[in-house]
From TrEMBL:
It comes from the Eukaryota. This is Amino acid transporter AVT3C-like. It comes from Senna tora. GO terms for cellular component: vacuolar membrane. The chain crosses the membrane at residues 37-55, 61-84, 116-138, 217-236, 257-280, 300-321, 333-352, 358-380, 392-415. Residues 32-412 form the Amino acid transporter transmembrane domain. It is a multi-pass membrane protein. It is found in: Membrane. GO terms for molecular function: L-amino acid transmembrane transporter activity; neutral L-amino acid transmembrane transporter activity. Coiled coil: none annotated. Keywords: Amino-acid transport, Membrane, Transmembrane, Transmembrane helix, Transport.
Length: 422
């Protein structure tokens, strides 16, 4: 480990690599109140993954789905605290400084290998999020025009047509070197997103009271890992916990603020998933908004969510560009490289038929490693001499659990994707 080979100096600094942090957060005031920290936690975690939860509850059963949401939320919270404690240990007891991001932590503990592991997981997870955004936008718009566009146009289905229609605009948005000019649009989009999801939940209540479909509480063991993948994906944001803790004014209360945020988010996710499944039962679709009936309110909700994800795309891609440009273009802005990445993400979105299946795949294969395996592994490597076998058992159990979920969930998701295409 890197920190074991440097015992002669009282303070160490990391190489001046560009950060993987979200730029809007990095340019915020250096210290945040507890309320602002709570708001940033909420924004960093709540994303498109919640839209696939009702379908996940349909597959797993609503009781199993709720249990998975709360278990994953608790484990994610614990692993976030592991990262914070590991950074504090390295900075206070071992004399390291400027550990501002997940990638910095990996470099401090394991050197270039640690940074590469974190970089790879961040690139795959962020790119995976953006693939799901394109799938949602294309499927939603195709659903809205399904009554007027009943067949292919120029040999392209409506979904493919809308996906390629977004492509040139995303090339333009992702060409912006700095995302400062997108900040107002991002704030507006977040407001629209919260309002739209609130309307969906209210609509679910009215539909449930009217239809009261047959519901299944437990879906069986065969879909357990599939559901875990979707749940893990929904709690995206592990890479932001260190920047958020750095900006917190009252760092002693950060753990409580984080815990409150995770509690509120898990309750919101549980309610959204359960209400969506309760409303439509076995008719629940992979994107819950496509279950909404025709009408002005339904159309505005679906357009609002699509607009939110459309403008969120370049924000989520920025960590990918920072990593790729650092490694392949000497940390300089590279237009053609960004365009090539956007093209690759668009092509992947074309190949995935089901939104929720892709959430499960990304959640199982990447988010589990980034959210569970690496935090526990880094914590164990730093604290093993202090806590001994207890540290090895606790952290080792999380690592083993993460690998089991990653392998089983990935295989389950791939089987679902290939079955859908067949």
């Amino acid at each position: 480990m890197v920190f074991e080979n440097k015992a002669s100096s009282s303070s160490y600094s990391l190489p001046p690599y560009p950060r993987e942090d979200t730029p809007l957060l990095a340019k915020s005031p250096p210290l945040s109140s507890n309320f602002k920290t709570f708001a940033n936690i909420f924004i960093s975690i709540v994303g498109a993954g919640v839209l696939g939860l009702p379908y996940c509850f349909k597959r797993t059963g609503w009781v199993t789905g709720l249990l998975m949401i709360f278990i994953v939320a608790a484990l994610t919270y614990y692993c976030m605290l592991l990262l914070v404690r590991t950074r504090r240990k390295l900075e206070s007891s071992l004399g390291f400084s400027k550990i501002n991001s997940f990638g910095d932590l990996g470099f401090t503990i394991c050197g270039p290998i640690g940074r590469f592991a974190v970089d790879a997981m961040i690139v795959l997870s962020q790119a995976g999020f953006c693939v799901s955004y394109l799938i949602f936008i294309a499927n939603t718009l195709a659903h809205l025009v399904s009554t007027t566009l009943t067949g292919p146009i120029l040999g392209l289905t409506p979904k493919v047509l809308f996906l390629w229609g977004c492509f040139p605009f995303q090339l333009g948005l992702n060409s912006i070197p700095t995302l400062t000019h997108l900040a107002p649009l991002s704030i507006i989009a977040d407001g629209v997103d919260i309002a739209a999801k609130s309307v969906v939940m209210v609509e679910d209540v009215f539909v449930f009271m009217k239809n009261k479909p047959d519901l299944e509480a437990f879906g069986g063991f065969s879909v357990l890992f599939y559901g875990l993948g979707v749940a893990v994906y929904a709690f995206e944001g592990i890479g932001m916990v260190l920047p958020l803790e750095s900006e917190a004014r009252d760092k002693e209360k950060f753990g409580r603020v984080l815990g409150l945020g995770m509690t509120v988010i898990s309750l919101l996710f549980g309610a959204f998933g359960a209400l969506g499944y309760f409303a439509f039962g076995n008719e629940t679709k992979d994107i819950i908004t496509t279950n909404l009936g025709q009408g002005l309110v339904s159309t505005l909700v679906q357009l609002g969510l699509s607009i939110n994800l459309f403008f969120t795309f370049p924000l989520m891609m920025n960590p990918v560009y920072e990593v790729v440009e650092r490694r392949f273009w000497d940390s300089r802005y590279c237009l053609w490289l960004r365009w090539l990445i956007v093209l690759g993400i668009s092509l992947v979105a074309l190949l995935v038929p089901n939104f929720a299946d892709f959430l499960s795949l990304v959640g199982s294969s990447v988010c589990v490693v980034l959210g569970f395996v690496l935090p526990a592994l880094f914590h164990c490597m730093v604290f093993k001499d202090e806590f001994g076998w207890k540290c090895m058992v606790c952290d080792g159990a999380i690592v083993v659990f993460g690998f089991i979920v990653a392998v089983s969930g990935t295989l389950s998701s791939l089987m679902e994707i290939f079955a859908s295409k067949a």
